[in-house]
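Exercise (ungraded).
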Amino acid sequence: MTGPAIHRLPLNAILGTALVGLLVAAILIGLFWMPYGPIAIDLDHPLAPPSWAHWFGTDQFGRDVLSRAMLGARISTSIALGTVVVAISTGTCVGLITGFLRGWTDRLLMAASDAILAFPGILLALALIAVLGSSRSSIILALSIAYLPSVARVVRSAVLSIREREYIEASRVAGDGTIYIVLRHVLPNALPPVVVLATSLFGWVVLAESALSFLGVGVPPPAPSWGNMLSDARPYMEAANWLSIVPGFCIMGTVLGVNLLGDALRDWLDPRGET
Amino acid sequence: MKNDPDNHARAGLSRSEAERLNCSGHKRTMNWMLASFFAKLRAGHGQPYRRLCTQLAALVIACGVAAPVAAETVLRTRLNSDILSSDPGTRRDENTDAVILHVVEGLVASRENGSVGPLLAESWTVSQGGRTYTFKLRQGVVFHNGAPLTADDVVWSLRRYLKPETRWRCRLEFAKDGIAQILSITAPNPQTVIITLNRAAPLFLKTLARADCGGTGILQRASVGPNGVWRKPIGTGPFMFGAWQRNQFIDLVRFPRYAALPGPRDGNTGGKHALVDRIRFLVIPDSSAALTALERGSLDILDALAPSDLVLMRGRGDIKLDMAPTLDFYAILFQTNDPLLRDARIRRAIALTLDTAGLTKAVTQGTARPDNSPIPSASPYYGPTETLRRPDLAAARRLLNEAGYHGQPISLITNRRYPQMFDIAVLVQAMAAEAGIDLEIETLDWASQFARYGSGSYQAMSFAVSAKLDPSFNFGLLIGDKTRDPRKVWGSPEAQKLLRQTMETDDPRQRQALFNTLNTAFMREVPAIILFNTTHIAAFRANVTGYKGWPAAQLRLWNVGFSGMR
Amino acid sequence: MLSYIAKRLLLAIPTLLLVAVAVFLLIRLIPGDPAQVMLGEGADAASLAALHHDMGLDHPLPVQFAAWFGHALSGDLGHSIVTGEPVASMILQRFQLTAIIVLVAVLLATLIAVVAGLVAAWRRDSIIDLAVVGSASIVLAVPSFWLGLVLLLVFGLKFGWLPVVGYVPFSESAAQAALFLILPIVTLTLTQSGVLTRMMRASSIDVLRQEYITHARAKGLAERVVLSRHVFPNAFAPTLTLVGLSLGHLLGGIAVLETVFTLPGLGRLMVDSILARDYPVVQGCLLFTAFVYVVVNLLIDICYPLLDPRVTTQ
């Protein structure tokens, strides 16, 4: 008895698409047009509250918050997307190798991934960025290293269950090579959980990037990320609350949207919830 | 009077501790005994002590119950990081200096105007062409452990500082390559100390008084254990060193037998009086948290406020503000050996793009004084040659053209630990971009940036220099032989010669002329762009009295009390 | 069982060794010199060299590593080069606080997650489910430091109900200490409960579809019994694993909260010592957190068979 189910609306898909659509729209419009230059200072109008001239107000140097948020959408998304691509692709490779080959390679790589998982993630990224210097690419690299083991583990456990299936055995008997089997049979079947993981990862990275900004190692100016804007707004949380509310809601909306889309994707890829 | 139990609670004291302290407030002399006893306990002497502690605490509570007493007054303030040690001028930073200078005092100390005044020395004479200093000690001065101050203690303290193993920061100032070598320290009688130098050094007393040298504080021998291990400072200051819970708080306790000088307070000397029973320095790294604490009344004084905090603190009935111009500066440093920035025209062009006044106003919310000279505007030597550079984009473009600059990127290093350095970098980047100069900001953590400063491996960096009581010290940070000391930005031999001359004379008019020449050359060659001298901002609860900032920007809590006190 | 534990502990040794080497190399790769930072802008080369000697930084790196690791094996993590305190006692002192916050918050979050997740799965697609999934997704999307700051402004400042700074150790006054910990614990609980609730809901939905649940229902067991006896234990195991695996991230994330709430915990100690290049403290802390991670995950794995009869330790 599963209770009186109301009609199953793909609410998460609708809301998720709407929020992500908003994000994409902000990025696309921002490529061609912004209300003001996002890095143009106007020292005569600092900390102006939202008005018709500046919808989301201005910051302590008179920069337009809406324009900065639009640019921030691009920066934050590029960091999150970059990290997701790097972490997912390398993590999938590691997961496939360890899961399918087993043996010493598996043990060694898993010990290494355990070692990384045992590190407090943000602090690992903090130390790595201190080594690499704070730029967008080093933030992507540092966060990828921190999140790679989680991806590898998910892929590995999927592979472990897939390799016991009959069609793998059949393929092997038919004389197919290992690489062919992995690419033809294992990878496609391991992909659905990876796609879902990728959406969660996107959200984590946006949040992790804002935490890194808070600890002082965000992207270098003048281009802001949302995390940057949020941590810059700290001294003004009471006096000019729009400075923190705008990037705060941007982060919330994006993470929420991507997560909802991930949920919808899972329902769609795996309607009976078998994995 | 702050005697409601709630106050103790807010100060972070448990009820029993509060009662214990109330009791000790009744018998002031017990304060010292208790403080030292508990300090010993906290140092971790194991179980038997702990039991003793509980018994003692019970006893003290009993006495508190038996005799209703005047409540202890506690002044609560904030440090943004813990002090590094309690040994003056050794393992230190600005917080350490500020705390320690409440506890120890030197022969001489800095006055408000940057000159040097007597403190433990009543007077001194200089003879033998400026090479011999004879100090006459003040009578009736007592150390925190009750021992009287004698010339012997001064000799012992100074000799200890000069031993390499003490790691005194200012030891090398008095060695061969320093301002003058100390040849001998003697005490012909209990009230007289004679110091002989190898050459005349007009900056000798000013160096002794430096806060980062721990004010060359005179210590009682019991400060050091029998095996030469540092214990804690036993000085002659208005407050005694109390409990120190690492990364939580440091307590300083009123010294009832302090021998105060007559007259008003003047810098680190003059009439110093402990008006509260105890000062608690709470370690609160996060500045927003500290502000919130002040607003709530969990702190009484908060100094070194960021200008951005002013927005919140202005116009509140329960909080007062104090602003004092200081002798520091914020600047953009250039690496004058860099292939690109070797050309003074490019450096000058960057300087010409900057609207110093506008930048200062934006970065410091209008609190700081814009200043393009290494001589701080609050210095008595700040004179007619110190004019602000006018922004001139056309001239900047012309200079860039002549120098053959075509938009090559120049890295500008900054950090997020010091928000004003970061903001300066952001604004300088935006302003320089208008003349086609491509500054790329590189954000490092402070330790990395500092390493780059130390090795000179940078193109440009946003930097700040703490308050120095003499312009020679300010110029000294910038000028020097770059091959021997890569930290120096300005290696010009003429500048080095002029700097040396400013240190060899103590005639103010002669020095003024030298500083003027130096400043003119500095504005022409632009090895660095000085931007402003900050204003030290302190906020305190409305019932706090007597707080005053001063150009050295070092926190002083003597003569500070609460309104309505005795 | 004992041999299983012994085997797992043995397996943890290479992980810890890897962590030790990685930490040592990583922190030394960061440019910056602790002695320089300590001495400040006016320091000369001679006092720098002297301080390097004091800090033991004048030996070659392999020698430093061997010395540090040798001592670490015997439980001596060395002394902080900034304050001179023994690292082991610094860690233990700071960890008490962090452990209390993390334990209480994770416990509360798990409790919320189990109840909310189970109910949401049971009444899937109902209003309750929608509310649970919606609020879990929203708390999941809030940056934790922002949440902390907003709570601090509202409850600490606007209403003045809770203290804002300063911390009283439990040894001095448990009641006061608890008061200081309410906001950080609430913040951490909220952020953690988001992930855990979603996990619990997903695995409960999974379990509810299994045949044995249908069997149990067919036997006429009350829904309450089905949920508590059959669904809960089976759905809880993956949630528990998630708690263990996210522990590393939790210990890092708490650094941010400890900064917001000015708590002298382990996270802040790690951030501060990374920034000050206090090598022995960073090395000690990270080795310690790795050790905690290994032990906690071992404990969780030992608990596993207790929950899920299908998994055995063999």
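Further reading is listed at the end of the chapter. For now, observe: Residues 113 and 199 of chain C are 8 Å apart (CA to CA). The mean pLDDT of chain C is 82.
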